[in-house]
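Appendix B, example 12.
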Amino acid sequence: MMPYSEDHIALAAEYALGTLDADERAQVETMMSVDKDFAAIVDAWEDKLSVLNQMVGSVEPRAEVWDKIKEAVGHSEPQAPLVLPQAPPVVVPEVKEPAEVVDTSNVIRLSAQARRWRNVASFTTAIAAALVAMIAVGVYQPDLLPDGVRPKPRVQVVEVRTPAVAAAPSAQYVAVLQKEGGSPAFILTVDGASKNFTVRKVGAAPEPGKSFELWLISDKLQRPRSLGVIGGGDFTARPVLSSYDNDTINTATYAVTIEQAGGSPDGNPHSAPVFTGKLIESVPPAPSPAR
């Protein structure tokens, strides 16, 4: 929609009021025929002002008012001829110089135009006051308005977003799995909050047709528990520690055995542990915020 100045909007409002002369109305109608947005502004003004007609009922004037109107326009019954008394003869003084003639047509025309604009201003002021009253009633006491002009309740949904709070870092535990006195074969990392672990292959050499399998060995358990086969890549991640409590996880011994391809078929180790290690805390948990 193109921007319109206050003059365009005022012109549309006066067109809806019916206070424009013939030339101005023709100008507005021409603009409406070529500009749909401007026509929509005029229609909006007509909708707003038409509400006033719905609030005002028709009033039948009294009979004596019609009689006075008829007398004023000369449509009453014929009157008796008016008889004027004999006027004395008028003595015309001798005029030595021609009197200056004053043209009063402009004065009469300006007076009529001023009266017309004063009427328009009064009518516009009354409409504005009525609109202000309707708006005030619609805001504070909408039940007093007719159903046709009563504003509909508006429901506004407000979405409140709370700032995201970064989770405090959890404790991290690390175990170096190696032969006694040998170089590290695997590094096991356990997250203290999620209990997820990651195994990184460091120096272990794969054996053809065999698989490395990780085990959890604890005095609280009757037998070693398999934590799964270590994959052929550099990193293997598992979430299987979530079923164990923190004390079991932190005090257990972690061992790697060499099993048949795909791991132990019955959940029990079939060879002695090759690499072992225990967890140590590498990153402490974040301190609780002071209150």
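DSSP finds six helices and nine strands in the chain. The longest strand covers residues 184-191.
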